[in-house]
Amino acid sequence: MSDQSYAEIMRIAFEAEEGINAEVIARFGRKYADKTVLIKEGEVQQEIFWILSGEVYITRKMGDKYKVLATLGKGELIGEMSFFDKSVRSATVIAKGPVEALVFSKENFQEIFAASPQWTKRLLLSLSSRIRVMIERLAGL
Amino acid sequence: MTEADLQYGQVFRADSRTVLYSPGEPLSRQPIYCLVAGLMRLEIDPGNGARIPIYLLPDSVFGVVETLLDCPRLARAYCLEHSILYRWDREGFDIASGVSWELARHTITGMTQVLRILNAEFSDRLKAREVRG
């Protein structure tokens, strides 16, 4: 596949979710069975997940039990905190039923950026919102 | 980062103790900054008098959150040393971060670091409140 055709595929994939085609999924897609652990709390792992279908539980171990903090689904990004800024995973992510996701490593993320900077802008906006929400929560303490 | 990564921005120098912006201020015409040389402190002010300091080293990109959310400043940006910076308007930054992976990566990394610090601060304060009962 030429660089140009690859760039075109990625552009389509990341500008519109419905544009994701078989070639993109073949390269970056992974399928997870129910209850599979995608990310484990306490580990250092630099991968980012983009959920294509299904849902995942975001959980944190509290004592002997796992507490579900959130349930995330299609279109959600997972793992961006440790992906760019090496840190220990702060939560365990478990598949809630069958899940399909695009999984990117640090190496191929640069290719994705080159193909579709829009995707980066979406991430910046998401982080900005989360920072403001956290400042608001701190103000309430 | 190289000059190519910082294109569409404007270089400027700021003396030690210069305040670039303070909480509640509206956005300036060029509200996004990258520290090229020097040292800065960002103080996040949640509005209850307790400032959270974040020290910025060269290649740090800041001022992005308020710009993207189009809201008044949430922090104070303060030069601890004579510093050299680049600054962008939103359109220029969009173009620059759209063509430079390095600029985009430093921006995202800076934001995840801030978020981690805020998360840790929140967790600490929550625990302290629980201990106090």
Report on the architecture of this protein.
The complex is a heterodimer of chains A (141) and B (133). With 141 residues, chain A is an alpha+beta fold. Chain A has helices at 3-15, 22-28, 80-84, 106-115, 117-139, and strands at 29-32, 37-39, 47-62, 65-72, 77-78, 92-105. In chain A, strands 1, 2, 3, 4, 5 and 6 form a six-stranded antiparallel sheet that branches. In chain A, α1 packs across α4. The longest helix of chain A has 23 residues, at 117-139. Chain A is globular and about 45 Å long. Chain B is built from three helices and eight strands. Chain B is globular. The chains are: A alpha+beta (141), B alpha+beta (133). The A-B interface holds A 80-81, 84-85, 87, 90, 110, 113-114, 117, 120-121, 123-125, 127-132, 134-139, 141 and B 44, 46-48, 52, 64-65, 68-69, 71, 74, 94, 97-99, 101, 104-105, 107-109, 111-116, 118-119, 121-122, 125-126, 129.
How would the blueprint of this fold be written?
The complex is a heterodimer of chains A (141) and B (133).
Chain A: H1 3-15, H2 22-28, E1 29-32, E2 37-39, E3 47-62, E4 65-72, E5 77-78, H3 80-84, E6 92-105, H4 106-115, H5 117-139
Helix pairs in contact in A: 1-4, 4-5
Chain B: E1 10-14, E2 19-21, E3 32-37, E4 40-44, E5 52-56, E6 61-62, H1 64-69, E7 75-79, E8 83-88, H2 90-99, H3 101-132
Antiparallel strand pairs in B: 1-8, 2-7, 3-6, 3-8, 4-5, 4-7
What is this structure, in a nutshell?
Chain A is an alpha+beta fold. Helix content of chain A is 41%, strand content 33%.
